[in-house]
Request: fold
Amino acid sequence: MICIPIVDNNIGTALKNAKKALEVADIVEFRVDMLKEVDESVIEEMAKFPCIITVRAYWEGGFWKKSNDERIKLIKKAIECNAKFVDIELREEKNKELVKFRDEIGSKTKIIISYHDFEKTPSYEELIKIVEDGLKIGDITKFAVMARGKEDVLKVLNVINKYEGEIIGIAMGEEGKLTRILGVHFGSILTFASMEGKASAPGQIDVKKLKEIWELIL
Reply:
């Protein structure tokens, strides 16, 4: 699957761009933390799309600086609305509470437990632990780490291959672009691509270019 992040700060524009993105992608990620204003009605509208709903905390590289209770409330609303996926950080203390909430209300939402490192790629052993810890909590583990060389790319692809179908693995930055191209071939559930120059993380490849590359090599 290809996922295009929706990074607009206005809900009207975000919904409009989501419709446009789904003409070329399988799913979108709504970066709720990047909106200037958001309430539960916004989440209801987003959940109608095939999407990941993410309210990324500032301490995990996101833009949400309001109260964490308000953030958790928005994520719970997404779960109530049966959003296809929600993204919750591995370091979020209430991640297990959110999974329990999903189970108690019988929601169909799949929960992605995510980890980010914008400085480096941890060791292979550390990545394995991150994935295992995430899978003990949610349905899917996602990690996005910063690649500093070819060795980091190989580490990421090896981990993806080990957890095929249960993982979203990304090496960010210019050095990590190969993981965005080959990740799904090795077992990543999806890869993130940009549209019209709008990206949510370093190294994302334009969706049209990515599809051209796939046609050539896969």
Summary: The first helix runs from residue 11 to 21. The chain has a mean pLDDT of 96. The chain has eight helices and nine strands.
